[in-house]
Amino acid sequence: MTSQFSDRKYVIIVIFSAIILIFLTRLFYIQLIDDQYKLTARNQAFRYMVDYPARGNVFDRKGKRLVYNQAAYDLIVIPRQVKKLDTAEFCKVLSIDRKIFLKRMEKAILPPNSSRKPSIFEKEISIEHSSILQEKLYKFPGFFLQPRTLRKYPEPIAPHLLGYVGEVSEKITDTSSYYMDGDYIGISGLEKAYEKVLRGIKGTHIEVVDVHNRPQGSYMNGMYDTAAVAGKDIVCTIDAKLQAYGEKLMLNKIGSVVAIEPSTGEILAFISSPGYDPNLMVGSALPKNYKILQQDTLKPLFNRALMASYPPGSIFKLINSLVGLQEGTLTPENLYPCRGGYPIMGGKPKCHAHSSPRDLVGAISTSCNSYFCYVFRGIIDAKKFGTTKKGYEVWRNHVLTFGLGKPLGSDLPYELRGNVPSIEYYMKKFFGKNDFKSSTIVSLSIGQGELGILPLQMANVMCIIANRGFYYIPHTIKSIDGKSIDQLGFRKKQITTINPKHYEIVVEGMAKVVESGTAAMQKIDSVPYCGKTGTAQNPHGKDHSVFVAFAPKENPKIAISVVVENAGFGSQFAAPVASLMMELYTTDTIKRPEVEKRMFEMDLIHKIQPIKKQ
Fold it and tell me: Are 203 and 227 in contact (CB under 8 A)?
């Protein structure tokens, strides 16, 4: 019996010895080998910092810098570490009062923040102020400076194309593993479209601090740090000189300009007027300036080039011509009469005075409304289709291949679709009738009625005609980090349903518009180009002035659309703006200073006319 108890005693001693040995071994590992537990135990002596990467720069097509970064600092607070703070001195250093201090500290504690987590106390402290603050931070335990960058625009141009960066929303931080409260993200334009390319990758580092809150260097020589990766630089497609010139021409005018290189689909200029200085939409000044701009009755934040849908007016006659030629319901030699309007409907739609009858080239050059009512009638009411409904479907399907009635798929966010009314819409509008005639929807023949086209789409139609039947999706990027953008799908031809041979006669008509037609006053002697004037009816006021063109006539380098709201005929304002921009782009000079001066000085917003010399 005594032997059994003796054996048990030794077993118990062995078990307890083993347990003690395990604990001692583990304690040795934790204290002397595993740094993870050192970090936890000595957490108060370390500061975990986020390294924000430099956002990628943006350059124009010729290498001119459009967007870069400016250094700044955020003052970060960890509320739990704030002890024995001289509030009066702290507020004096930051030039704030005690109420603001208490309000910010309360915010730093309340969810989604925490007394244990770092949060932003003050944003965007300049380098000069940060150096002064850094010297005194040892007096303010729990506070430290976090370096970051802000966007800077050396020239106040292209705000709607470049876009802006703002603080990330709570909705995004709640669903994202990358973004945290206080981070910045692209909100619009290129900044939004190429956010993942431009933002880079955040890094982290552990900094040792002494009892006075002063940095003593990286922990373990940075063994546990992760390096930030800078964002990639972007070369965009716009020509900064052309962009700035176009914005100056559109000053004090409401409207838009879009210029595209037909052979590539690269956007050369992208203007929505009135615009704003992109430097207003940077950092902590953004909310205040955004509110001011948002309340402006001229709507400078509204991207007219991408989101305003206008009746195209007479520029749509070009598409109707091509559809008629394709379907064989129109020949270049067809002559149609005009007696101040469309005779079949008693002179409506009306037309301006010109010689009659005209062939297709003559009708394009004089922009005869009556002629294109006949053209539209020939398509829609053609006997070969059996019904007008079928004729309309054929017509609409052709029109859609010009990139109308749907988003073009550009790389700019928030692109709208415009409108090419469906057959279902008209069947409903006309009380469910099984059929209707061209006279019912005759306004479509001259680009009015329910049609709606975006300025970007107008410029793209010019690319199609310049290329004789195809286009590349308009885009704003030439290269990313020095690499071409072929993989993004912008190099694929988008082909219309119109045979290339039919474009030549339309191009000839557009050349006559400039040589002797409705835009003869905007001829460029050194650059033969093709254009079409338009006057888009506006039910809310004076008609809009519209002009589309491409230059030169052969091997075009630029296609352009200009809309000047409430400015009347296309030849009066839109055509001069377009012709001046094409002249600058193709010749690098302006040889019509009197036209340029008039456009610079014309103020259509405040109704101020330039002073004419007697």
Answer: yes
* CATH topology assigned to domain 240-601: Beta-lactamase (3.40.710)
Picking from 154-158, 379-383, 426-430, 552-556, which range would have the lowest pLDDT averaged per residue?
A: 426-430
Rounded Cα distance between 531 and 465, Å, is: 11
Alpha-carbon dihedral angle through residues 28, 31, 34, 37, given to the nearest 10 degrees: 130
d(CA 118, CA 108): 8
483, β-bridge pairs: 480
Distance CA 83, CA 31 (A): 29
Q: Answer for the pair 142, 74: CB distance below 8 angstroms, yes or no.
A: no
Domain 47-235: give its CATH superfamily. Answer: Penicillin-binding protein 2a (Domain 2) (3.90.1310.10)
Task: Provide the residue ranges of all domains of the chain, joining segments of one domain with +.
Answer: 2-33, 47-235, 240-601
Structure tokens at 402: 């010009």
* Contacts of residue 15, Cβ cutoff 8 Å, sequence gap at least 6: none
Tracing tokens 């109707």 back to the chain, one arrives at 320
pTM for this prediction: 0.87
End-to-end, the C-alpha distance of the chain in Å comes to: 135
Which backbone phi and psi does 272 adopt, to 5 degrees? -125, 125
| Omega of the bond leading into 274 within 30 degrees of 0 (cis) | yes
Place of tokens 């101020």: 608
Q: For the chain, how many residues are written?
A: 614
pLDDT tops 60 at residue 222 = yes
Q: Is the pLDDT of residue 613 over 50?
A: no
Cis status of the peptide bond prior to 349, with omega within 30 of 0? yes
Q: Is the separation of the CB atoms in 90 and 101 below 8 Å? A: yes
- Answer whether 50's CB lies under 8 Å from 207's CB: no
Q: What are phi and psi of 375, to 5 degrees?
A: -60, -45
Return left, alpha or beta for 530; rule: phi > 0 is left, psi -120 to 50 is alpha, else beta: beta
Per-residue DSSP letter, 351: -
What number of other Cβ atoms are within 10 A of residue 206's Cβ? 16
